[in-house]
């Protein structure tokens, strides 16, 4: 049942986002002159957008799947500098994810505390919200194509309505992360965004045990509005 619900949520979520992106692309067709990256992604540029992401765990958490949706904002802090293909600028950004879910198979978990052994049925759907208040991104602006690649690192905070990923852990977790991606500019005001991130989930020993998710791999699709300086 969990697998079926996960598939339905993923299909409905990505289908809805693709429909929104299609409408946005159609609306931007009349202004589809390819911009030079340096004229849009430059010091003082502000952008905001919406995204949806799907992810899967690795290692001991390979059966765990994730789905989230939220919004992001970014501000380019520096002028362009650097040699050749490394030429770019630094950006400060943030993300808020009001819809966050993880899906795990049901299982029986053994927990020992103060010599007392208890068994708990765990798994199912976990629901929460996440905030990444600091994202440091390097935008690569060499060249004149519609595509602007980027690499970033950040740190986030996750709250779930029940302890994740196991009983005895915590409803609060931290999310250090690293990712790469690219903007594909439809025009000088709008872009479609693609990203891939590696995220670690850990409660930093806030709970009785710190059984987090060592690494999950996330793929992200979004749409961004740009305000030039």
Summarize the helices and strands and which ones pair or pack.
Elements: H1 2-28, H2 37-40, E1 46-57, E2 65-76, E3 88-113, E4 116-140, E5 147-164, E6 170-185, E7 190-201, E8 213-227
Antiparallel strand pairs: 1-2, 1-8, 2-3, 3-4, 4-5, 5-6, 6-7, 7-8
Structural features:
229 residues; mainly beta; Porin; eight-stranded antiparallel beta barrel; 8 strands
Can you walk me through this structure?
This protein is mainly β and 229 residues long. The protein has one domain: Porin, CATH 2.40.160.20. It has helices at residues 2-28, 37-40, and strands at 46-57, 65-76, 88-113, 116-140, 147-164, 170-185, 190-201, 213-227. Strands 1-2-3-4-5-6-7-8 form an 8-stranded antiparallel beta barrel. Strand 5 and strand 6 form a beta hairpin.
Strand content: over 45%
Give the CATH class. Answer: Mainly Beta
Secondary structure category: mainly beta
Annotation field: number of helices? 2
Strand order of the largest sheet: 1-2-3-4-5-6-7-8
Radius of gyration of CA atoms, rounded to a whole number: 20 Å
Helix content: 10-25%
The helix/strand series, from N terminus to C terminus, equals HHEEEEEEEE
Globally, the shape reads: elongated
Number of strands: 8
CATH topology: Porin
- The end-to-end distance, rounded to whole angstroms, is 50 Å
Question: Any guess at the CATH architecture?
Answer: Beta Barrel
Average the pLDDT over all residues and give the rounded result.
85
What's the domain count?
Answer: 1
Low-confidence stretches: none
Quick one: biggest sheet? 8 strands, antiparallel, barrel
